[in-house]
Structure formats: C-alpha cells, structure tokens
Specification:
TIM Barrel, eight-stranded parallel β-barrel, 15% strand, binds phosphoenolpyruvate, alpha/beta, 11 helices
C-alpha cells in the first residue's frame, strides 16, 4: 500500500500585506521545528510572495500561489505567470478554487489550461473541486464532470504532481464543515474515479485533501479518515497558532 504524505495548506485569500506575512512566518517557523513527514504550505496573496520566498529559503515550509494565468507571457493586464511565481520561490499553485470559479469566471476549460501550464512549468498543482449546496444531492455527477474536464490531457505520470482538494462550497467560510463521514465518502469516490480513469496505483498514490471550515477543533476527526490526506484551510490558516494546531493534528494520525 502506498503511504501518502499528508499536506496541510493555508489559503490566505485576500488577506495580509507583505509586512504581516513576514510577521506570520516568523511566528510560525519555530512552531514547525519538529514537523517531519508532513508537507506544510502557505498560500499568501501575490504581493507577499517575494518577501515570503526570501524568508523561506532553505526552510521546509513551502510556498504556493492562489492562481496563475494560463499563458506564459504577453499582453494580459493584471495576470501573473508561472515563471513569475517560480521566481518568487513558489513550488505550488492552487487551480480552480471555488472562489475563482464562482466569482472570476474560471470555467473547466480555463481550469484545465491553468493546470496544464502549471504542470508544464514544474509547479505542483492543487486542483480544487466541490459542489454547491443545491448540487449536494448530485455531488458525484458534479465532481466527476469537473475531474473529467479539468484533467483533460493529463497522463498518469503528470498526475503525480497534482493534489486534489475536495471543498464542498457550502462549507467554505461558512463555519459548516462536512462531517468526517461525508468528506470521507466523497473523497473515496474521487479515488475510485482516479482508479477507473487511470489505474489503481495512480489512485493509491493520489493525495486528496478536504477543505471547508477546517479548524483545530475538527481537524483531527477529519484527518483520521482513511482517504483524507490533509487539509486546505482558509480562515483558520490566518493565525499562526491555529494553523500550527492543525498541522499538529495531522502529525498525531
Ligand atoms: C478555502 O479557502 O479553501 C477554505 C476551505 O476556506 P475556509 O477554511 O475558511 O472554509
């Protein structure tokens, strides 16, 4: 059986200046000193990436970006390329976060292009999928449609550079968390989909996170589920102490 390395990722969304980012990193790093066997990632806004990258040189705490453009260069006012992210020290990028999909018009075609450009540039990608409350009864259809379209053209080798995050949209920033059982059920469905569209080895190796109001108080029971390999954390990732507590919950599994 493949041992999947857990990942705890903090998506800061539109929070923190470069100065505040520096303060956060300086507070968090000592709390991670004894963390081994877990990947820990912060995902600040673009304007903090350069400062964060300098502070994290040689450290195991990793850096990611919240989005990327699907072209590598050119006349795309306001957009950021994979090359720029890598130059800041990013090793990860989020693709298809529900806020990008719902508020900024990233449809599955755009998500697939972003995923491809990220992987071509040797960034690891976290592909977010999930259903709204009204789609909850049709969760399997929604997620398999997203996976089918978003992973177009991705072969089994490239798939190893992707982490999937299952984020029910009704649980993001709402304080409502999927129960560990519901999260486990959907995530194991995603793993079965990978097995049937790639193979069993790809499915067993695929790291799949849960996201949606993860907090220190509920992290342990979610991370204890056999198919949940970590968490994508929003609100609770903005405070170094609560983020470190979620990392601790992953260590205790
Ligand atoms: C997220 O931003 O991906 C997220 C899950 O946010 P929150 O933890 O605040 O629900």
């Amino acid at each position: 059986m493949t041992m999947r390395r857990p990942l705890i990722a903090g998506n800061w969304k539109m929070h923190k200046t470069a100065e505040e980012t520096e303060r956060f990193i300086k507070e968090l790093l000592p709390k991670l000193e004894n963390v081994e066997d877990i990947d820990v990632l912060i995902i600040p806004p673009y304007t903090s990436l350069d400062r964060a990258g300098r502070l994290l040189q040689g450290k195991s705490l990793q850096l990611g970006a919240q989005d990327v453009h699907y072209e590598t260069e050119g006349a795309f006012t306001g957009a950021i390329s994979t090359h720029m992210l890598k130059a800041c020290g990013c090793s990860y990028v989020l693709v298809g976060h529900s806020e990008r999909r719902e508020l900024f018009g990233d449809d599955d075609t755009i998500v697939a292009r972003k995923l491809n450009v990220a992987l071509d540039s040797d960034l690891k990608a976290i592909l977010c999928v999930g259903e709204t409350l009204s789609e909850h009864d049709l969760v399997e259809e929604k997620i398999t449609r997203q996976l089918t379209q978003d992973l177009t053209g991705i072969d089994a080798m490239t798939l190893t550079k992707i982490t999937i995050a299952y984020e029910p949209i009704w649980a993001i920033g709402t304080g409502k968390t999927a129960t560990p059982e519901v999260a486990q059920e959907t995530i194991s469905m995603i793993r079965r989909w990978i097995a049937s569209h790639y193979d069993e080895a790809a499915a067993q190796g695929m790291r799949i996170l849960y996201g949606g109001s993860v907090k220190p108080a509920n992290a342990k029971s979610l991370l204890a589920q056999p198919d949940i390999d970590g968490a994508l954390v929003g609100g609770a990732a903005l405070v170094a102490e609560s983020f470190a507590q979620i990392v601790d919950a992953a260590r205790l599994q």
